[in-house]
Write a structure and sequence with these properties.
Structural class: alpha+beta
Shape: rod-shaped
Distance between the termini: 41 Å
Order of helices and strands: HHHHHHEEEEEEEEEHE
Number of strands: 10
Oligomer: single chain
CATH topology of the largest domain: Porin
Radius of gyration: 32 Å
Strand content: over 45%
CATH class of the largest domain: Mainly Beta
Helix content: 10-25%
Number of helices: 7
């Protein structure tokens, strides 16, 4: 009698446009032991028609139908499809033992991820050798930090459960100021770089749950796209006369490529299929930025009393971002 009942049910189900109703009817068939046609009944709605929750129920039902029909290879293929859709699935208390056993034969682990982030940075400069037409009158000769912005993207490869190799590309603006005081004048200089940074680093996850801290170490190559500056000269006479330059292009005075060592730390918050993360890094400059043969020019030296010394820059950055995880599914 059941064999006569199946074609009748098929005709009813295929006439339905409502996939949720079709899923409920397929579950009723399963409860009655009529499992042979369930994969075909649900196939169309699995491709387009189910919500994520309904699709999960349907895929699980198909896996169980194959298992109870002793079609092991089809059940394994269906499980792989299920895990591709639900790589972070965990066995629930209501899952049948047969489904749990099949599930336990597969492993899903993060293989790699992609990320996008934005934030800010603070740049400082350290003089290696000073140059100039005069010696500063006091110790009032210093660089100051100026905040700027950055944005970037990257990819990470999971080396094991705790260790990741990260490769990124970051566009940033970096600014710093130099203040010099002579007996007769004060000079203020602001310099801004537009830069592409290419960090390569390793991150190590510390113990944590949904909120997971990590440490970072690596190196970075920076490509300076443009360098600009302006000067402000104030004479310390009775009138305190001020002269200020326009924004000047000084790209020919700067090394195009730079190298830095970097260390950092951060925390990532687990969300479905990814993380929201907050990241902080310190870049320790290893490259002097001034090209020695282009150091001198008459206007800067004799109009604003300024000559570039040899200096390196360090950078403190902070960013917030999102990364999406891709999983590897393996049969154990």
């Amino acid at each position: 009698m059941s064999l006569l009942f199946i074609p009748f049910v098929l005709q009813i189900l295929r006439s339905q446009d409502n996939c949720p109703s079709m899923l409920e009817r397929a579950e009723t068939l399963f409860e009655r032991g009529l499992i042979e046609e369930i994969p075909e009944l649900l196939d169309e709605c699995i491709r387009n028609g189910f919500t994520h929750e309904e699709k999960t129920r349907a895929q699980r039902l198909i896996i169980l139908s194959y298992l109870f029909d002793n079609k092991i290879s089809q059940a394994e293929n269906a499980m792989i499809g299920f895990l591709r859709e639900n790589p972070e699935y965990r066995i629930q208390p209501g899952d049948p033992a047969e489904f749990a056993f099949m599930f336990s034969n597969f492993s899903t682990r993060p293989a790699f991820s992609i990320a996008a982030f934005l934030g800010g940075n603070l740049t400082s400069a350290t003089v290696v050798t000073s140059y100039g037409p005069y010696n500063p009158a006091t110790d009032d000769n210093y660089f100051s930090l100026l905040p700027e912005t950055q944005l970037g993207a990257g990819a990470s490869v999971f080396l094991n459960n705790n260790l990741e190799l990260n490769m990124e590309g970051i566009y940033s603006r970096n600014s710093f100021a130099h203040n010099i005081r002579y007996n007769f004048a004060e000079i203020y200089k602001r310099e801004t770089h537009q830069k592409l940074e290419f960090p390569v680093s390793l991150t190590y996850d510390l113990p944590g749950g949904r909120l997971n801290p990590y440490l970072r170490a690596g190196a970075s190559y920076g490509l300076i796209l443009s360098a600009q500056t302006n000067y402000r000269l104030m004479y310390l006479n009775g009138n305190r006369d001020i002269f200020e330059s326009n924004m000047l292009n000084i790209g020919e005075k700067r090394s195009q490529g730079t190298f830095s060592a970097l260390i950092g730390a951060g925390v990532k918050f687990k969300i479905p299929r990814g993380h929201i993360f907050f990241d902080m890094r310190y870049y320790y400059g290893l490259t002097e930025l001034v090209i020695p043969e282009n150091r001198w020019d008459q206007e800067t030296t004799f109009r604003y009393y300024y000559t570039d010394g040899d200096f390196i820059t360090d950078n403190l950055s902070f960013s917030i971002g999102y990364r999406y995880l891709f999983y590897r599914i393996t049969k154990m």
